[in-house]
Amino acid sequence: MESPSQTPIQNECRQCCSFCDQVVLPSGCVAAGCRYLYFYDEDRSGRRYMGCLNKIFRVEIDVELFQEAQRTRQGYGGVRLTAAPLPVCEVAVEQAYDGAGEAFECVNPGFFDVPDDDRAIDLRDRL
Ligand code: SF4
Ligand code: SF4
User: Fold this and answer.
1) pLDDT, tens digit, 9 for 90 and up, residues 63-107
2) Is 107 exposed, middle or buried (0-12, 13-18, 19+ CB in 10 A)?
3) CA 19 to ligand 2: nearest atom
4) Which among 28, 48, 25, 50 is positioned nearest to 37, based on CA atoms?
5) Which of 11, 40, 59, 89 to mutate to test the pocket of ligand 1 (most atoms within 8 A of CB)?
6) At a CB cut-off of 8 Å and minimum separation 6, what does 105 contact?
7) Which of 18, 47, 72, 92 has minimal Cβ neighbours within 10 Å of its Cβ?
8) Cα separation of 92 and 22, whole Å?
9) pTM for this model (two decimals)
10) Which of 22, 106, 113 to probe ligand 2 with, by most ligand atoms within 8 A of CB?
11) Neighbours of 71 (CB within 10 A)
């Protein structure tokens, strides 16, 4: 059975004006039918939420809002990565700002490597 690392990870970089965050895409959790994806119904609000048992991401996502966003061209997007991902997790780097010139030149290319030595994926492919 896969065992995730709960070692805190450096999930953001602010070394240039692009402002990058490492994220996990919940759409990937759903598509993979991940066994660590849980759902629960909140009695008071009647809303359904989903989250990750492994805390690869820590936020709990409103399922209805997620589904609405998924129907748009942009999709729901990513949520902050909070632990080293498993091979099943779909991860990416999201850049807050897309500019030109020296202020936006990456000085930390290692940030685009998945924070897990076993994975040889370059997140730049998913920008
Ligand atoms: S382990 Fe990864 S794929 Fe599974 S629910 Fe958590 S973040 Fe999603
Ligand atoms: S582009 Fe590179 S240096 Fe700039 S914020 Fe992103 S990872 Fe950091």
Assistant:
1) 999 999 999 999 999 999 999 999 999 999 999 999 999 999 999
2) exposed
3) 5
4) 50
5) 89
6) 16
7) 72
8) 6
9) 0.83
10) 106
11) 8
